[in-house]
Amino acid sequence: MSAYIAKRALTGFATLIVASLVVFAVLEILPGDPARIMLGMNASPEALAALRDEMGLNQPLVTRYFDWISGMAVGDLGRSYTYSTPVSELIAERLEVSLPLALLALALSTLIAIPVGVFAASRRGQAADTVSMGLAQIGVAIPNFWFALLLVYVFAVGLRLVPAGGFPGWDSGWQAMKALLLPAVSLALPQAAILARVTRSAMLEVLGEDYIRTARAKGLPRRTVLWKHALQNALIPVLTILGLQFAFLLAGTIIIENVFYLPGLGRLVFQAISQRDLIVVEGVVMLLVAAVILVNLLVDLLYAAADPRLRTSR
């Protein structure tokens, strides 16, 4: 088991290094001068040269990359050009909104999708199966930002049950949760549609196995066969999608947070890109990459817990 974990951790570390090279290179080749964007088109050459020197833009690319990557290793992501604040502080402040939003959306997606997938698989070919998967297909096809606007129009503007946007802060308690409810639902439902279809497919494959027929022949209740024997053995593909969905939800808040005016990571990235604040963009993107790698590592560990054969296989 320790060799299994070490191999996955080493793979994740190598992926992180490669991702840092790609992120740094892509952002460096983007057109536009950050110093000129910050000072304006009428800035004097002396002022531009002084700002470039202060931002470290005059240094060689290799030196700038190693300064950036060594700073990340000790938790120093640099200082924002626009906000004059350490990037780590900006990210920590915005994560207080984005992380609960992603976790709430993932919880809603899982609570909706797995029961629907199991229900549809247990009634394969029947009307309930057709209706469930038809609704899931609609959920896959609907863009989440359009669905978010529809939720705002119905529940915020029409019924006035929840706020249309903004975030009052966690000090407000229930009001903060209400502010995250519509964004979480708009993120969760399209992902729930995908997860429900995957769950149904995995369940149908398992339900055709010999041990399921044996369990039924022994007279076990239908609920026990479905939820204890079949679902447990269908979890591998479901866990894969859950891991990918969490990373998508954390990164996919860029559009939703701008729709609902939430002060999270997505809005921070949008503002940093528009202001050419590259150090902030690099920090946030690397955080998201690290989150994807960490989630994939956790999913691999859950694989080993769900399927003991993975712990002993070469």
Automatic annotation (TrEMBL):
Lipid bilayer topology: Multi-pass membrane protein
Signal peptide from the UniProt entry: none
Keyword check for Transport: yes
Subcellular location: Cell membrane
Alphabetical UniProt keywords: Cell membrane, Membrane, Transmembrane, Transmembrane helix, Transport
UniProt xrefs under PROSITE patterns: ABC_TM1
GO molecular function list: dipeptide transmembrane transporter activity
InterPro entries documented for this protein: BPD_transp_1_N, MetI-like, MetI-like_sf
Lineage top rank: taxon: Bacteria
CDD domains referenced in this protein's UniProt entry, alphabetically: TM_PBP2
Stored Pfam families: BPD_transp_1, BPD_transp_1_N
Segments passing through the bilayer: 99-121, 133-156, 176-196, 234-256, 284-306
Domain ABC transmembrane type-1: 95-303
GO cellular component, one term: plasma membrane
Entry similarity comment: Belongs to the binding-protein-dependent transport system permease family.
Official protein name in the record: Binding-protein-dependent transport system inner membrane protein
Species assigned in the record: Nitratireductor basaltis
